[in-house]
Amino acid sequence: MAGLPCKLIAQVAFKAGATCFITSWLRSLNIWPNVTPGKIQACDLHQGNYGTDGSVIQWKYTLDGKAQTAKQLLHDIDETKKQIKFKMLEGDLVELYKNMIITVHVETKGGVDFIIWTIDYELINADNPHPLSLLNWTIEFTKDMEAHISDKEY
């Protein structure tokens, strides 16, 4: 499987509303360390502006109980489609995966908003695990976001 494109997808119903979800990502990235300190410890802007195409964000986060870092390029941001892509540039995950892109977007089906996380990647080594723990992290993070913003206006 090393070198072959792989994809993991998670879909989570989101009662707080799609607009709130996307707006919180585009306008309020820097609040997440305060809201989810067990998952995200820092979100520092390295280039551009929060929530704009071409901006570069440095994250400090916890995955599987371990401190991790990631530097990501935000691109293909589309507020109409309610989509953001994060291209992994540096960090712990780059040691295991290449060409990793995490896409988050919202779809509404039957009047219900769903947050859909897609992780595209290639294993550097066939013995490396698929990033299932990262996918689970996105699901739990989405639930944390929903709990936080359900009482807020974005």
From TrEMBL:
Superkingdom: Eukaryota
GO term, biological process aspect, one: defense response
InterPro entries linked: Bet_v_I/MLP, MLP-like_ligand-binding, START-like_dom_sf
Xref: SUPFAM superfamilies: Bet v1-like
Protein name (database record): Kirola
Domain Bet v I/Major latex protein: 3-152
